[in-house]
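thought: fold this chain, then report.
action: predict
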Amino acid sequence: MNKLIIKFFVVILALTFSSSSFAQGIDAGINAAKSGDYVKAVNLMKSSINSETGYEANYYYGLSLFQTGATKQAETYLNKALKDDDEGIEALRTMGDLYSSKKDYTKADSYYKKALTQEPENLSVLFQQAENYTKAGKVDDAITTLTFAKTISDKNPNVYVGLGDAYYYRRAYPPALDNYKQALSLNPKSAGAQYGLGQVYFKQKKYNDALDAYKKSIEFDRNFADGYLELGRLYYFNENYPNALDAFTKYAALKPGSIEGETYIAKTLYGQKKYDEALKNSMK
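observation:
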């Protein structure tokens, strides 16, 4: 009888420990995602996610998968989050971002609009909707959306980053620069604004200025993957292969689900005449 009681308590303790570890993994992963460390979030949550996890965990896991380049898996978990709460604004916005990244701009906009029916003045959704319009070539719609966002908060630097992006896509570089600089006047450490400056300077063939801007973007945000990618491309085109390889490696670490980083790593190794290593990377 005593042995049965002992076994019972051992099982209870094991289940309690397992449940505690599960919760800790989920909570730590959510916190990592909130801080922008999406690779860490995926690693912490992947063994704990299951069908009973709930909206918040499924959303942050889906967000982290999307941000690290695992788009197909991300869609699965974002849909799970929306099954738990079909009005979850964060999941709706991220689904919009996901379809925008796939160039399905119409479907992306449908998610943004659904989110905005609940919170018409949600700035994070408005910014992403405007970015989607910009990518779709609907620059006037993007500017209209951002002008509305500006009436809600004219001191939000992301309003001006978005306007800068819209003018950049229109190839109107002077107003693009003005808006990026306005964003920096409101937030001197805006990675998005510095990245935007880099994009404009590159188009203007001001390569040293572009290089400085990209460097600042990753200095301000160490998890800003696009900054590493463009920095690497700039080094690569200048045949500075060691620095290019370093930047592409950091990009690939932040976007392990994307093939773009590994492709550029292979190209850089080929440029260094490291043909065997280049072939190995191209086959990943």
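thought: worth noting. The radius of gyration is 22 Å.
final: tokens above.
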